[in-house]
Amino acid sequence: MIFYLLRRLAGAVVLLLIVTMAVFAIFFLIPRLGGATSDQLAARYVGKSPTPAAIEQVKHSLGLDKSVPVQYGRFVKGIVAGKDYDTGVRKVHCAPPCLGFSFRNNLEVWPRLQDRIPVTLSLAAGAAVIWLLAGVSIGVISALKRGSLWDRFSMGFALAGVSLPPFFTGLVALALFSYQWPIFKGVHYVPFLDNPASWAWNLVLPWLTLAFLYAALYARLTRAGMLETMSEDYIRTARAKGLRERDVIVKHGLRAALTPILTIFGMDVGLLLGGAILTEQVYSLNGVGKFAVEAIGQQDLPEVLGVTMIAAIFVILANLVVDLLYAVVDPRVRT
Amino acid sequence: MKHPVTRRRRTQALIGMVAVTAMAATACGGGGGGSKKYSPSNKAITEVVNQSTKKGGTLKLVSSDKFDSLDPGDMYYASAWNFSRLMARPLLTFKPAPGNASYEFAPDLATDVGKTDDGGKTWTYHLRKGVKYEDGTEVKASDVKYAVERTFDKEILPNGPGYFAQYLDPDGTYKGPYKDSAPDKLGLNAIETPDDYTIVFKMKEPFADFNYLAALPQTAPVPPAKDTGKEYVKHPIASGAYMVDGQYEPGKAVNLVRNPNWDQATDPLRKALPDRIELLEKQDANDVDNRLFAGTAQLDVVGTGVQAAAQNKILTDKKLADNADDAISGALAYLAVSSKTPPFDNVHCRRAVQYAVNKSQLQRAQGGEVGSDIATNLMPPTLAGSKVTDMYPNGAKHTGDVAKAKDELKQCGKADGFSTVLTARANRPKEVAGATSVQNALAKVGIKVEIRQYPSGDYFSQFAGVPKWVAENKVGIMFMQWGPDFPTQFGFFQQIVDGRAIKPAGGTNLSELNDPAVNGLIDQATRTIDPAQSAAIWQQLDQKVMESAVIVPFGWTKSLLYRPSNVTNLVVTPAYSGMYDYLNIGIQ
Predict the structure, then answer these.
(1) Which CATH superfamily is domain B58-284+563-587 in?
(2) For chain B, which has fewer Cβ within 10 Å, the N-terminal or C-terminal residue?
(3) A190 interfacial to chain B (CB closer than 8 Å)
């Protein structure tokens, strides 16, 4: 088991290196292939109408005057060993894992990013609970009552959920429940530890918006999975044994149907922790996703690198957890 | 079996559709049909709305963007300059007053506007006595000198304008206080501080507009002992009525509280009404508008106007329109025609474009009459000393004059037309829509236009602002919008038509106009102190540029601003790109 974990961990490190190299390549190599010089890259980070002297200075301070491999080496070194930065007045030591200083606002990336993680975590976790509960139960009932009015209605609802993006449902939800009927007035993030009740109250709309999208998907998946497993031979056997219908459905049917859903759930949650971009944007929640959008929009390389790494780490972790959970849900995996 | 399945699918689809339409309907509802149109009241353009001296309360501000910096020495956004004055006192600022009065200087840290006795080479300012920082120490003239010196070091503070370095140290010998070997870090010889309350700026060449530089936030004092270089952005030391509460979190929030050491007796400008000012950055743009309508936020700090959805709401709802102002932002939207790319190196081919474009359609692309006024020359009518002229009349509604355009093409030797490339910024819907309009209009006279779109973040640093790139890609026409750094003709013209403003990258003289006559007029005007005389020179310059036809002006942009009725002392200030003046706003 330990050996397995170590192997996965090593794989994760390699993956992170590849991901960051890809970001570096996109950032530096592609513009260069298009003929852009390092002067042109640096000109992005100076104010309006920069003088050549100013561009030269910025190029130096951002390290853009060095070759791409050297810059990448510096980046990796910062993560492993930390880095020193000159603020003009003093040297600041940025302790490992040092993701560097933002190209745009000169501040350290890691503390700013750390600050964003709880927001996305709160959003994703709450929404995940809702969509899993709602999606799976709707799916199960639909499968059992196949063709009924409930089935048609809930699958129609699911279709709407899948087709409506959060920047639409979110804005409608805000228009209705924050402005028309101000039940959730002035939605903003409150840290859980400051006031748990206010934390939850403010997150209700974002949770529902996000969960609506996924619940729909999960309802359809569960329904399909249930329909398939419930027609399996072993279900008939279970019924023939005289098991209670509830046990047949939950222990035999749902358990088998859940395995693929769990995989997707793990991936989805992992991806979401890397930023629920649309939902965070609509509700102006300062999460990882919004951070990513801003970083990319501003071409802030250190911030883009930081957020990409965080997202990758979450996906890797989520996959690991899913693999471990598999063993619990599906006895066949336990060997 | 097949039949019921398809029927069920259909029912599902139907339910899905109904749900979608129902939600769409609720989303669009509330506007009430939208048949009747209302005009914005424009009240805050001509007067200070909701005048009040009532103190107290918390002012809640929002921004769909973020400041480039909160360090007064490192900012370039007009909104940041406007906002910075709540905490920092530059030597001069602009009067918080409507219309042309906002162009008048109001001495802030200084007791009076700068005086020159050698035709504009030396400028002297006297500081008010008893102005204190948030820590209780008094502001000294050397702190202003230090603040200006800081702006020389682009390695540490890259964002702000570089005018001080350009005029005070044209040879680039001084590298800024962070690399200064003088023990007090005040090694710049061009600024002298004979005593604690006097500061003298000395230049080699006369510069008539120097007072505008003194009105930049870069002249707000910075105590050298408290300077933290790159980290100063987190908590700039306040000299104004408010100070940062804790630290600024870029892209998130900043809260201002009263500066306990600010003394009203030293400050005739600030009313300092609210007890607390909270600003949330990077908020969803549409939600920002909703919050303004609901009154839960008092102002959108970006100041470039509401989104399309909110614009429709305002124009169809009398109550909202009463609280809206359609302000001229002082920026010019234009097509920069290359003076180098053939066949545009021939003036007649450029003039053909002047006649051919449909400015009425371009105005529609800008958001209609609310979005811009049709421009026929360069200088915006809101600038002091400007004069509206039309050298290339192309129809009563400026829809284009095909005959005249074709005539110019003949003189250019391209009677059968030609092909060219036009660039626009992909993430600016107004430019993208405008590009199609230009394409259609030029097609009518035989000029085939290929549209290419680029991200706005790289437009100047990688594409249109790089002469080499423009030449290699044979770009003939470039979409451009220009708002001056300071509200003077110099600020408006210098960066877009002066040949010496052409740079290998990041330039804004996209046409690459390098006409000795134009450059000469700019020099002549900057040396002319008398406003009436200099206005005449600038008007001549405007004509000169129009004659060369390298700029096809089509819109003086406007922004539709909304002010919730619970905000006091709101006035549109042309001095800061036509946004509201943030100096004295309060809450009822």
Answers:
(1) Periplasmic binding protein-like II (3.40.190.10)
(2) N
(3) no
